[in-house]
From TrEMBL, chain A:
Designated gene of the protein: nuoK
Chief place where the protein resides: membrane
Catalytic activity: a quinone + NADH + 5 H(+)(in) = a quinol + NAD(+) + 4 H(+)(out)
Subunit structure: NDH-1 is composed of 14 different subunits. Subunits NuoA, H, J, K, L, M, N constitute the membrane sector of the complex.
TM annotation in the entry: 6-23, 28-48, 60-83
EC number: 7.1.1.-
InterPro entries: NADH_UbQ_OxRdtase_chain4L/K, NUOK/Mnh_C1-like
Source organism of this protein record: Streptomyces kasugaensis
HAMAP family assigned: NDH1_NuoK
Keywords (A to Z) from UniProt: Cell membrane, Membrane, NAD, Oxidoreductase, Quinone, Translocase, Transmembrane, Transmembrane helix, Transport
GO MF annotation terms: NADH dehydrogenase (quinone) (non-electrogenic) activity; quinone binding
Name of this chain's protein: NADH-quinone oxidoreductase subunit K
Automatic annotation (TrEMBL), chain B:
Subcellular location: Cell membrane
UniProt-listed InterPro entries: NADH_UbQ/plastoQ_OxRdtase_su6, Nuo/plastoQ_OxRdtase_6_NuoJ
Biased composition (Basic and acidic residues): 179-191, 253-268
Name of this chain's protein: NADH-quinone oxidoreductase subunit J
Lineage per the UniProt record: Bacteria, Bacillati, Actinomycetota, Actinomycetes, Kitasatosporales
Domain of life: Bacteria
Length: 99, 287
């Protein structure tokens, strides 16, 4: 098996995540799909690091993880505050900037 | 295995077997994430996919990232997701009403096209050989990463610190709620209750004396009907009330039938002659 298969898997996972963002309307599930896409990118970075024989790809994946952690914290806080004002987590109902 | 040859073009058989088995699991988990109706099931599927990805990181020589993936992603981020799902409501399923007509099929078609383009792009690239991490990982994976982070990527690393602090402050600002009016004290609430005169003493307790003491069982009024007031409003709104008011009557009836069997009395004439028969259990319930 060639490690390029990992890249195909990463592309597949990214595609599934992107389709999920388009299909689902529960804000939390949309957020999970974004996490899935980030993870697929991380896998591609790690495999690239192995292909090129240096650790730069792993560093980028590490930074992606840090940014993803920060993003999850802020995003979930936004979802919670939307839920507080609108009593729903559907992205369709959050159509106005203000209540 | 990974980097002994300078430029290998194939991995070991064990890794191939691992890839095909766990890769299937990862794709199934990802599909379940977007297809499950409830957010909790989606979160658990995604956690499974992330664990599989951690194993793939380990297989690709990213030992540090594999452990961080499990600790940070499955340990912290997914639990944060589950926490918010619990906060927002486990039962909050997606609405099936389509706001845009045909949006689902259009989105699925777009996803399919995007995937074909992406995979075809990777297929066209010439990625026959790989170097392996044997040389880069020679001094240890963590040491190698640390050497890079604190030399070449030190500014990005410091920016990351600023980002994390900003995110923490942002989360606190977003979820903080400023109190617009003063909180009412216990004395004021009790005075308001007396002034309103609707329910001055505490609300009656749930449960049926000596039979049930669960919070979802309404207490019975003197005439045997359940009282809605005794059950928590949250349970009332969810419709999770267990009504046991009929149980006492059937229990008494069963007891009477058994006692008559045991005393070998013929219940035939009694039930036909006793007109107040149906009223008798009601008497029991009143006590």
């Amino acid at each position: 098996m060639n490690p390029v298969n990992y890249l195909y898997l990463a592309a597949l996972l990214f595609t599934i995540g992107a389709a999920g963002v388009l299909i689902r309307r529960n804000a939390i599930v949309v957020f999970m799909c974004i996490e899935l896409m980030l993870n697929a990118c991380n896998l591609a970075f790690v495999v690239f690091a192995r292909m090129h024989g240096n650790l730069d790809g792993q560093i980028i994946a590490f930074f992606t993880m840090v940014v993803a952690a920060a993003e999850v914290v802020v995003g979930l806080a936004i979802i919670v505050s939307i839920f507080r004002t609108r009593h729903t987590a559907s992205v369709d109902d959050a159509s106005l900037m203000k209540l | 295995m990974t980097g002994l040859a300078a430029a290998a073009s194939t991995t070991s058989l064990g890794e191939a077997v691992q890839f095909w088995i766990l890769g299937t699991v990862a794709v199934i988990g990802a599909l379940c994430t977007i297809l499950m109706k409830r957010a909790v099931h989606s979160a658990l599927s995604l956690a499974g996919t992330m664990i599989v990805l951690a194993v793939f990181y380990l297989a690709n020589g990213a030992y540090f990232l594999g452990v961080v993936q499990i600790v940070v992603y499955t340990g912290a981020i997914m639990m944060l997701f589950l926490f918010v799902v619990m906060l927002v409501g486990v039962t909050a399923a997606d609405s099936l009403k389509e706001t845009l007509k045909g949006q689902r099929w259009l989105a699925a078609g777009l996803g399919l096209g995007f995937g074909i383009l992406l995979i075809a792009g990777i297929g066209n690239a010439s990625l026959r050989h790989f170097d392996g991490l044997g040389q880069a990982n020679a001094g240890g994976n963590v040491q190698g990463l640390a050497a890079l982070i604190f030399t070449k990527y030190v500014f990005a690393f410091e920016a990351t610190g600023a980002l994390l602090i900003t995110a923490a402050v942002g989360a606190m600002v977003l979820t903080h709620r400023e109190r617009t009016e003063r909180a009412t004290s216990q004395r004021e609430r009790s005075q308001a209750r007396v002034r309103a005169g609707k329910q001055v003493p505490p609300l009656p307790a749930p449960g049926v004396y000596a039979r049930h003491n669960a919070v979802d069982i309404p207490g019975l009024l003197p005439d045997g009907t359940p009282s809605e007031l005794t059950v928590n409003p949250t349970l009332r709104a969810r419709g999770q009330i267990r009504d046991v008011s009929g149980e006492a009557l059937t229990g008494v009836k069963e007891l009477e039938r058994r006692s008559e069997d045991w005393l070998e009395r013929d219940s035939g004439p009694r039930s036909s002659s006793a007109a107040p028969g149906p009223a008798a259990p009601k008497e029991e319930a009143k006590k």
